[in-house]
Design goal:
The protein is an all-alpha fold. 75% of the residues lie in helices and 0% in strands.
Length: 208
Amino acid sequence: MILHIDQTLGIWVEQYGLWIYAILFLIIFGETGLVVLPFLPGDSLLFIAGAFGATGQLNPVGLGVLLFVAAVLGNTVNFYIGRYIGPKVFTTESRFLDRKALIKTQAFYEKHGGKTLVLSRFLPVFRTFAPFVAGVGNMPVARFQFYNFLGALLWIGGLITAGYFFGNIPIIKDHLNTIVLIGISAAALPVLGGVAWKFVRGRLSPRP
């Protein structure tokens, strides 16, 4: 049920009352803070939580502040785990880590630097691995926290606000999964465009 809480949030709100805030905190913290939990719901959960804020079943401001703290703390913990484990994680096989996803995130991080921490907030899986890779790469703490706070603010604030204003419109409720996929694609397009441009430029540039 936790994996599908974005679809059953109404039931959870009725059953657990105020405890739902703690549950949502732990889900956002787990997805962003524990590199072995990239499968937890994120974008759709935030959007639907914002929709429940509009109906009065959740406090949208309190929820936004709480989940902002969860997202910041999650990335911070993930960052320090990456620092502690170090580069050996890229060469060591583990049943708990998707090494291919780690390597892709590392390439993404090397290309975009600190912006990765902001962009990856809107890309499932990448947002779980990005702070970890930043820790492995020994990004300066102050620089990491700047992008950490900015990314959390845009991700949490943006999706809860969007859910608050648009989440209860019937056509959006009925096609939420499709809308989330479109949103993810829109977030990924600038990144994919940059990668494609770099590839084309490399092919067209004269060889020595």
